[in-house]
Amino acid sequence: MRVPVKPLAKYPFWLRPFFWNQRRKYGAVLDPGLLWGRVPKLFAAVAILYGVLDRRHSPLNPVLRSLVTVRVSQINWCAFCVDINAMTLANRAGSMEKVEALEQWQQSDNFNATERLALEYAEAITYSDRQVTDDLMQRLKSVFDDDTIVELTGLVAFQNLSSKFNSALDVPSQGFCRLP
């Protein structure tokens, strides 16, 4: 990593429960959390935003959310994000099929029409040489209501933030998923 993490004892006491929860959930404290934690208020803001986007009662189903986060992570060359989000996708989808097919989703039969539309939208937002067109937005509106489109847009934007942060700081994968 391009910026080192600090020993856990050097982080504010109020961040330690977050790290304890990561260790309980993932078996390890996550390197990005330790990096964001170097600026505790920034860590808190990112954690709250992530919690809102990955909540149980999101209008976006969990598999779709994971598909989008893995695809954005792939585009942004974030080894850590692909690793952890692919593990989450495999768990939510019940297999590695979608993970393994995701880079070539346009040629794969593993994705339904809604998933394809969300992936197209995620790519239009993420690739700097593309734009969201009026046609794409109309197709989104035929499937999702306006609030869900805002949430999907927020998810894509958050994953771009997260994966670009980790990629810039060269955060490695932590071995959560056998990557294709």
Could you name the key traits of this structure?
AhpD-like, single chain, mainly alpha, 2 domains, globular, 180 residues
Description:
This protein is mainly α and 180 residues long. The chain folds into two domains: 42 residues, no CATH class; 107 residues, AhpD-like (Up-down Bundle). 61% of the residues lie in helices and 0% in strands. The chain has nine helices and no strands. Helix 4 packs antiparallel against helix 5 and helix 4 packs parallel to helix 9. The mean pLDDT is 96.
Topology:
Elements: H1 16-26, H2 31-36, H3 40-53, H4 62-75, H5 79-93, H6 97-101, H7 113-126, H8 134-141, H9 146-168
Helix pairs in contact: 4-5, 4-7, 4-9, 7-8, 7-9
Quick structural summary:
This protein is mainly alpha-helical and 180 residues long.
The shape is globular
CATH level 3 topology of the largest domain: AhpD-like
> Which percent bin holds the helix content?
55-70%
Biggest sheet layout? none
Instruction: Round the Cα radius of gyration to an integer and report it.
Output: 17 Å
Look at the structure and name the CATH superfamily of the largest domain: AhpD-like
CATH architecture of the largest domain: Up-down Bundle
Count of beta strands = 0
The CATH C-level name of the largest domain is Mainly Alpha
Q: How far do the termini sit from each other?
A: 23 Å
The number of domains is 2
Kindly name the structural category.
mainly alpha
pLDDT averaged over residues: 96
**What are the secondary-structure elements, in order, as H or E?**
HHHHHHHHH
Strand content: under 5%
Query: Helical segment tally?
Result: 9
